[in-house]
Amino acid sequence: MIFDFNDHSRIAMNYKREVNVIVAGNKYRIRRPYTWAEFKELNLDKDPGFLSAEPSIIREGGNIVKGLKMTPKQANDFCLRTYGAPGVISSAINFSDGVIPSGKHQWPIYLSTQAYVTKEPNGMFVINSNKYIPADMNGKYAFACLAVAP
């Protein structure tokens, strides 16, 4: 469950935190984008390795939802540390699976409509993985984590 730190009477079910997918015959786990509350629960908000982290403010109806965004390198380091290799979701897997933005996995739509950073095979980070726009390495973006599944 996710508790709303601003309103302690509100909670939400953490529905489908991750999904298993098969892309080109390979098995992966994809972690839906983190919320700011989930990041703070990990107690990493004071970690020097993640100082770029900040909430992305998303308006959903009359509510304010806080996602998580970081610089591309820190996002990749965060994924490697908390979720496993290869880190930030690759552009090819994101594009072929239709992860972001789509309703395919029934993730909260407000988390899936932000500007996302994905990773190319050569290690370059891009935004809008179907357009391959180079990411500003000092910019902060939402991200999804990817790990090889057993």
Detailed description of the structure:
- By secondary structure, this protein is α+β, with helices and mostly antiparallel strands.
- The protein has one domain (about 15-150).
- It has helices spanning about 35-40, 70-80, 90-95, 110; strands at about 1-5, 10, 20-25, 25-30, 55-60, 65-70, 85-90, 115-120, 125, 135, 145-150.
- Strand 8 (about 115-120) and strand 9 (about 125) form a beta hairpin.
- It is globular and about 45 Å long.
- The mean pLDDT is about 80.
Number of domains: 1
| Secondary structure tally, helices | 4
Q: Roughly how many Å apart are the termini?
A: 26 Å
Helix content: 10-25%
Numbering strands along the chain, what is their spatial order in the largest sheet?
3-4-11-7
**What proportion strand?**
25-35%
Secondary-structure class: alpha+beta
CA radius of gyration: 15 Å
Helix-strand topology string: EEEEHEEHEHHEEEE
- Count all strands and give the number: 11
Shape: globular
* Low-confidence runs: none
* Biggest β-sheet description: 4 strands, antiparallel
Could you tell me the mean pLDDT?
81
Relevant terms:
4-stranded antiparallel β-sheet; 4 helices; alpha+beta; 150 residues; 3-stranded antiparallel β-sheet
